[in-house]
Amino acid sequence: MMLAAERRADREIMKILVTGSGGQVGQDLIRGLLERGHEVHGSDVASRPSALGLGDRELPWHLLDVTDLAALRRLIARERPDIIYHLAAILSARGEENPGLTYRVNQGGVYNVLEASREHRVSQVLFASTIAVFGPGLPDPVPDDVHLQPTTMYGVTKVGGELLGEYYNKRYGLDFRAVRFPGLISATLPGGGTSDYAPLMYVESMRTGAYEAFCRADTRIPMMYMPDGIRALIELSEAPRDRLQRTTYNIAAFSPTAEEIADSVARAVPGARITFKSDPTRQAILDSWPNALDDAHARVDWGWAPEFDLERMTEDLVPKLRALLRVNAS
Ligand SMILES: NC(=O)c1ccc[n+]([C@@H]2O[C@H](COP(=O)([O-])OP(=O)(O)OC[C@H]3O[C@@H](n4cnc5c(N)ncnc54)[C@H](O)[C@@H]3O)[C@@H](O)[C@H]2O)c1
Known about the structure:
- This protein is an alpha/beta fold.
- The chain has a domain at 14-184 and 224-253 and 291-307: 3-Layer(aba) Sandwich (Rossmann fold), CATH 3.40.50.
- Helices cover 43% and strands 15% of the residues.
- The protein contains 11 helices and 11 strands.
- The strands form 3 sheets. A 7-stranded parallel sheet has the order 3-2-1-4-5-6-10, sandwiched between helices. A two-stranded parallel ribbon has the order 7-9. A two-stranded parallel sheet has the order 8-11.
- Strand 1 (15-19), helix 1 and strand 2 form a beta-alpha-beta unit.
- The relative contact order is 0.14.
């Protein structure tokens, strides 16, 4: 097991570019990186969200479409980041509405980021992969190295991203590192993923007192609280390269049924009414994903361990969401 002190011991201040940084993961990642003292540049095809909660900390923001290789090259040549966290993507549910766009943004985007990083000698590229790389019929829990047969364009492009990153690592020595995120739950609005029923149970119960989930009550997929997800990305980035036996890692936290999440919400938000009405398209995607992930390689190679289970997450999240909803209402 790797000790915290073994992670990039010198803890240098890095110049970091985050793509897709206006999204659910990006907003929390930016805060995490700034808290560690790094110089962070946000970028997104959309303008900077108004409520980033950064106080007086600086955050340069670049309007960047990752499908535009020339623009990406110009930005990297000008800003010379040490590290790029590549988050920009179209998620699974939105992705099935527009597979062509999903291919261009996700597959084209990761190629462009890797290619521009190679050309401009970026030291490290972090990639947010997903449980959507898996298809049905796999062992439970699913280890890292299995036959990848995703059922969505999103999953296909994420498999492509993992493989391209490994290629750039082997062929050019680019330091590419990826985590396969479970469904992430946080105190921001989710961005069109098929696991969104979980965060929406919290948000809608608190906002309106009721939520009809688009899945069956017995749906079970791997989930993670965002602070664990952000810590995983940052700790993987800080791990010594020679400790890493691979480029892409499963990471796991907990695997509740949808009903167990609803019960946890109902205990914390008295009066919340959560019902279930399965949507066939999204249910088919959920049923194709694993129940649980085996993250043994991440635990051994870089000391990964989650801090939050379902109950701890609910305890931490509900007051944060209450505060957020109060701010939005005022
Ligand atoms: N949220 C989850 O549960 C989850 C789970 C597994 C993996 N991930 C991965 O984490 C990453 C971030 O996810 P998220 O939840 O923040 O998604 P999100 O949809 O909230 O954010 C994605 C961001 O990418 C931006 N974007 C879209 N097209 C772009 C383009 N062409 N150029 C630049 N930016 C563009 C969007 O404007 C948005 O701000 C994604 O790569 C996603 O696949 C997320």
